[in-house]
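During the no-cost extension, the postdoctoral fellow (Dr. R.K.) reprocessed legacy sequence entries with the updated structure-token encoder. One reprocessed record is reproduced below for audit purposes.
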Amino acid sequence: MRIAVFTLMRLGPSLAYAIASIFVLSMPLLESQPSSASAWWLHMTILPVMREPIYLLLAVPGVGIWSAAVLLMLASIFGIRVALEPQRHQRSGFIHAHIALIATGLTMGRAAVAQAGLSDFALPQLQRGDWSFLPLTYSPLGMFLFISVFLACLCCHLTIIRRAISA
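Re-encoded structure tokens follow.
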């Protein structure tokens, strides 16, 4: 039972990367079907949670929508493997979880002061400014992701401490 709980806790970063890839894929979906209510609902639900890390990723030269989606999907799949074999991938799991924690923490910090206007991070193809509507400064999905990724980081630290004590 304890192993199953720790495995579920370690899946938090993988879930964050999967939700980020869904957000990236919602952009071309909106482009192809701009009048679809479900496409707008999907995009606007994930927007407050993944806006900052995705725009930061898309601002990297050479990274487009499709390469970002593939990269995030691969990170999510790798996270599943790390969660299932934590003893084999301790350092990789640590890095994987902490990158997700930084991304979700960045989002939670920026969502608290969300406002329309010039943004530090914007799509390089668009005008420097972020006028997207954020329906809530408090996002239940964002809080769930942050807590699940934080628990995964806690599991990584516990594994390192347990390994150091036994050595």
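Residues 113-119, 121-129 have pLDDT under 50 and may be disordered. The radius of gyration is 17 Å. The remaining legacy entries will be reprocessed before the final report is submitted.
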